[in-house]
Design goal:
- By secondary structure, this protein is mainly alpha-helical.
- The protein is built from 3 helices and no strands.
- The chain has a domain at 101-182.
- It has helices spanning 101-115, 119-139, 146-182.
- The termini are far apart.
Length: 183
């Protein structure tokens, strides 16, 4: 780019003083010839596999998709009083159901029947297990403890069965000794 004004201190051709300096005006550069611009290539379309099964169409009886819920602003949610329309309340925290106290007592008595007095706690455990089962059935899922009831029944019946077998075998040997002593 060339400057059209002469440098300061140079005289003009007529010999007079130089004109005051003015800011240089930009001179437009000649434009380069336009080059053709390549158009971007369209993405390749996938070729359908003729052997691939066609996805099933959605039945007309399917309900429409639910409307999208608005997202809360970044940095936190809305205060409860200013929640946007369509926002759902937070899910309730599940509360564990109480366990039947009769089921717990029956289970403890069935275990105690192995260590202490064997028959009486086992029978009491069976009665309490039956009571606990009725309580659980009447609770409609609000009362837990069915596993404890089952365990108490199994342990109690095994204990009663073993002690009944010990008593029967003991009586058999007592009779056998009595008969052998009489001969």
């Amino acid at each position: 780019m060339s400057d059209p004004t002469p440098p300061p201190g140079d005289a003009t051709p007529e010999g007079s003083a130089a004109e005051p300096m003015t800011p240089a005006q930009p001179v437009a550069e000649p434009m380069a010839p336009a080059q053709p611009v390549a158009e971007p290539m369209a993405p390749a379309q996938p070729v359908a596999d003729p052997m691939a099964p066609e996805p099933p169409a959605a039945p007309a009886s399917w309900p429409a998709a639910p409307p999208a819920t608005p997202m809360p602003p970044p940095g936190g949610g809305y205060p409860a009083a200013y929640a946007p329309a369509g926002a759902y309340p937070p899910a309730p925290v599940p509360v564990s159901s109480p366990t039947s106290s009769n089921a717990v007592i029956a289970f403890v008595l069935s275990i105690v029947s192995w260590a202490i007095c064997p028959i009486i706690p086992a029978i009491v455990a069976l009665v309490l297990a039956s009571s606990a089962q009725k309580e659980i059935d009447a609770g409609g899922g609000r009362v837990q403890g069915a596993g404890l009831v089952t365990a108490a029944r199994i342990i109690s019946w095994i204990n009663i069965g073993l002690w009944a077998a010990v008593i029967v075998i003991g009586i058999f040997f007592a009779v056998l000794v009595a008969v052998a002593g009489a001969v």
